[in-house]
Design goal:
The structure is a single chain. By secondary structure, the chain is α/β, with parallel strands linked by helices. It is built from 11 helices and 14 strands. The chain has an 8-stranded parallel β-sheet with strand order 13-12-11-10-9-8-7-14. The protein has a 4-stranded antiparallel β-sheet with strand order 2-3-1-4, with helices on one face. The longest helix is centred in the C-terminal third of the chain and has 23 residues. The N and C termini lie far apart (45 Å). The protein binds phosphoenolpyruvate and manganese (II) ion.
């Protein structure tokens, strides 16, 4: 449940209200402020939450069966745009974060970063904590890699988007990067999501490969309920019985989240396609669903990547500008057609 209080209530007034609501030991409550409004988030069985009367309380919001309220577009709390460094996602432009899967050779990483920047990328994606399907693959440079991210940012001149796997690393990753990525395997890692609620950085939240759109929005709600609404949703393929691509591109999810939340949504064609020749067609198909941008793996020398799957799915950086231009055209065509069709002027 979410209790809304007057935005001019002081921190100590709100703390006092939190205390009154948590008379039962199995109820917890904490304050958050979003969109110039103040709330008390309460977790616990509704029957255990007392009904308190106070001049500060202006609403009791039932969070209902969807399990998300703060990120529900109807409530106008979640932002429509999210800043990543000096770029913005969701402002009507086409944002793109591109770069290698993992930081390996520093020189290759700089070269790739400069190439994607010259080709129009707004952010540089690169991993130092890598979730892997096998414990025998390279797991990333870890904390040592975090030190290199600052150098990489200066050398490349783009804000860094990088994955965080462990709640204990959130602070260190937030010091090193402009945006923290939650990967598909961690979408339901609630300890991590809660910790990300306290970071001053935006979070790029990937959809779990087996998660419904509703579960994905609940994961976003975990971050928002713990204090951070700067969330970029990142759609990517889902598990299917068919293996024509690595994952099935569930593009309808882009439209579905658009209807349910105002948070920006981007698409990752790389981990959907699983091979470089399919990245452009998947990205173009996704563009017709009008995402706010793309997350693309790119590498100047894909044959040098350590993990077997990373090289074959890397998009050639020198083709990125062409791909982004084509995607923008598809998106604007889709916009025009959708508008004329919904206006009944076909
Ligand atoms: C990645 O972005 O490198 C990655 C591992 O993606 P996903 O979590 O979508 O598999
Ligand atoms: Mn990857």
């Amino acid at each position: 449940m979410i209790i809304e209080v007057t935005s001019d209530a002081s921190d100590s007034d709100i703390a006092q209200l939190c205390k009154l609501h948590t008379a039962h030991e199995d109820v917890t409550a904490w304050p958050i402020r979003h969109a110039a409004r103040a709330f008390i988030v309460i977790s616990g069985d509704e029957a255990l939450i007392p009904v308190i009367t106070s001049p500060f309380i202006i609403g009791r919001h039932e969070t209902g069966s969807s399990g998300y309220w703060l990120v529900d577009r109807a409530h106008e709390i979640a932002p429509t745009t999210v800043a990543v460094g000096d770029g913005t996602v969701g402002d009507g432009g086409f944002w793109c974060a591109a770069g290698p899967c993992a930081l390996e050779s520093f020189d290759d990483a700089v070269e790739t970063g400069l190439a994607v920047r010259a080709q129009g990328a707004s952010a540089y994606r690169v991993g130092v904590f890598k979730p892997r399907t096998s414990p025998y693959n390279f797991q990333g440079k870890g904390r040592l890699g975090l030190k290199l991210l600052a150098e990489l940012k200066d050398a490349v001149g783009l804000p860094i988007v990088t994955e965080v796997l462990d709640p204990r690393d959130v602070e260190a990753v937030a010091d090193a990067a402009a945006c923290l990525q939650v990967g598909t395997r961690n979408m339901t890692n609630q300890a991590l999501l809660k910790e990300l609620g306290g970071t001053p950085r935006p979070v790029l939240l990937k959809r779990g490969a087996r998660a419904s759109v509703e579960e994905w929005l609940r994961a976003a709600e975990f971050i928002a309920a713990h204090g951070n609404t700067d969330i970029i949703l990142c759609a990517r393929g889902v598990v299917s019985f068919d293996t024509s691509l690595r994952f099935a591109p569930d593009l309808g999810a882009i439209a579905s989240v658009r209807n349910r939340t105002s948070l920006p949504v981007v698409f990752d064609p790389s981990h959907t396609a699983g091979r470089s020749d399919a990245v452009a067609p998947v990205a173009l198909a996704a563009a017709a669903f009008r995402p706010d941008g793309l997350l693309i793996e790119a590498h100047v020398r894909p044959e040098r990547t350590h993990r077997p799957g990373d090289g074959p799915q890397a998009f050639p950086p020198h083709r990125l500008a062409d791909l982004l231009t084509a995607c923008q055209e598809v998106t604007s065509l889709a916009n025009q057609l959708t508008e004329t069709i919904s206006a009944g002027t076909r």
